[in-house]
């Protein structure tokens, strides 16, 4: 085990494996009051434990290093109404439950600052991941932009084609009266020719020519 300052804990805290920081308050308080004190002290909580090794570490700090002679609140409540809370004891039974309104010393626990530190290698990996994500985002933007440009080109081509067709239709409409006039004159002349041809045939029959 190591002392707090060397393991990323604040002054007065002990570190467990460099992951957790614990501080013992010798002053006695109810479980609820102990929770409030821990929360106001660096946003800590009443100490909990993950395995028997951590329990024994707390007991070592409490009864051997700091030489406390009474029970110590740790995280844990028992029964449906949560009227009984967990205490470290110096007896063979490491953890026992007592009425939460009793007053005992208590242990507060907070995350070790060292645990949250990143190594240079971790930082490099994080930067690489961020850079790769940025590259992917830029590539996606490029693809989307290219797609939009192609859509605009297609739209422009469609509009140009429509305008050309419309212009040709207008030109055809402008030429229509001239063509009609020519056709009318053609039919008029044809009719006159037919009439003249008919008179010539009638005259020849009557012996006038």
UniProtKB/TrEMBL annotation:
InterPro entries in UniProt: C-type_lectin-like, C-type_lectin-like/link_sf, CTDL_fold
Domain C-type lectin: 9-109
Domain of life: Eukaryota
Protein name: C-type lectin domain-containing protein
